Predict the structure.
Amino acid sequence: MMNLTTEKAVSAAQAGETDTIVNFKPAYITMGVMLVFYVGIRIYEQYFGWKAGLDSFAPEFQTYWMNLMWTELPLEFVAFCAIGGYLWKTRDRNIDAVAPREEMRRILTLIGWLAIYAFSVYWGASYFTEQDGTWHQTVIRDTDFTPSHILEFYLSYPIYIICGWGAFMYAHTRIPQFAKRISLAFLMFFAGPFMIFPNIGLNEWGHTFWFMEELFTAPLHWGFVFFGWFALAVFGVARQVLDRVIELSKEYEKDVLAL
């Protein structure tokens, strides 16, 4: 009896080999491309920041920095709308009929989305944010649109927002666990870091009217910290995902033993 059960389990596993459920290659490629892009843009900042980014009234500042900002913002808006629109248009309209194995595959794909989101948040909210403080403690600004801000606020922040939006939309259009109701933890995980972007307006307004040292502990920067803490909701999302993975694993084990 044990041999027969084992043979059936092996047969079931072999039948599923053609339908791989673990594929993180797209996530790895995406993060690799992002890494190359961010290193390249940092080299750009290092060279043209000192060469053409110290005087906002100079013609070269318009050429190398303002043109970059007016290019990146529309592209990011289009990407945000395109990713959300595509995921919504191609959503699973029969979500209750998703088989356990397919649901597991989609959950693992979501983990890839979350890895990309975390990777992009690191670059935006950690690396570029930290180097922005160093820049403004070194160089006296004469404009809100400094080279550091153009890459931090208007490039790296929108990119991680787009990644978070993609993860949120993927989960709520393809995974039954999230499609049937809005996950509060997931909503906080996306909306908190997203709200850092509107908070930029308050930050720039404050720096325009007050002469402040670039200290992260300054009250003007508390909004960044408050909304940044919402990223801790990732633990709630992880708990929800892992609970469902355990349930699906038990269902798969029962199906195999029932063969």
About this structure: Residues 75-258 form a domain with the Glutathione S-transferase Yfyf (Class Pi); Chain A, domain 2 fold (CATH 1.20.1050.50). Confidence is low (pLDDT under 50) at residues 1-18. The CA atoms of residues 130 and 215 lie 11 Å apart. DSSP finds nine helices and no strands in the chain.
